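Lecture notes, unit on protein representations.

Consider one protein chain, 376 amino acids long.
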Amino acid sequence: MRGERGRRDGTSELTAEAGAWDQLKDLFGVVRRSDAPHLGLRLSIAIGLTLAGKALGVLAPLVLGAAVNRLAAGQGAAVAVGWSFAAFAVGWALVRFISSAAPQASDVVFAPVRQAAQQRTAADTFAHALTLSLDFHQTKRSGSLSRTVERGSRAVDFLLRILAFNLVPTGLELILAAAVLGGKYDWRFAAVAVAVVAIYAACTFALSNWRLEHRRIMNAADSEAAGQAVDALLNYETVKAFGAETRAAEGYDRALGVYGAAALKANSSLAALNVIQGLIMNVGLGVMAVMAGMEAAAGRMGPGDVTAAVLIMISLYAPLNILGFAYREIRQSFIDMEQMLKVTRQRPAIADRPGAHDLPPSESGGAEVVFEHVGF
């Protein structure tokens, strides 16, 4: 039967705050519903290119290290040594180029999926909001609701890029780099690499959690300012009729003031985070260089091996530069996506039962509505 009545307030919350696993399932569900062309094929190719780029990024320093070792050995004719070094150097440049180009190709391959997922979530949320009851829209500011949909759709795009093609491959790169350092040189090199990355990540997560409160205040103030501005402009006649122009402008100014104060705190804490990250990275790099130099002095490593060990550490640090940003934005993006999905989980006050059928037209012998003996 159609017209089943829901809660009297017109809405029904189906879920509370989702956990991390539930949020990941929501994200994967968004991808599945995106109707992107060749979804499985694009996903496989993009992941393969990303992993290949990370593997080649670890291999490139070894190629350059072999070139430096050959040059340092200097055995044979100078021309032969020069050509041998040149061949390895060209190989290093080629491997390095492929390792940097592979993620870009991966992004191009997967971009239609991200775009389709972003479009589908925004369109579905907007369409669902239009089906909700009047009570829902009377208790929601139009500006805040539109900003929720906008931020949520952008969050889907960001999460797909950063999780599938940045953080997870970076973790695999760390494992591969530790295996290479431990297997080719000494287990202590692998231990230093893992320890430095672990300390870096722990400090970054701790400081990012502290900074997240500033971002929450900024987002709340941003939504408040947008709601104040849009509602005042949409209801201009009412504002004008009640002489509320000054009050509306003051409310908008207060929201902007809160946003500005939180933004200043966020920028100051970001500077502190960058200084601490730089200190950890450079201390780790210095320790690795000293250890490699001591091994070379003892004759257990060549000059090229020292170069390779240091370059592997530098290649590990490159993606870690955005770890704080990525961690903070991932948490915020999950919040934004969840807020958007909450809109789609609202039930209208009057909703069809699952599996309800449309009434057939009367000319086919179906039901019809007839008014008989109606009087007033």
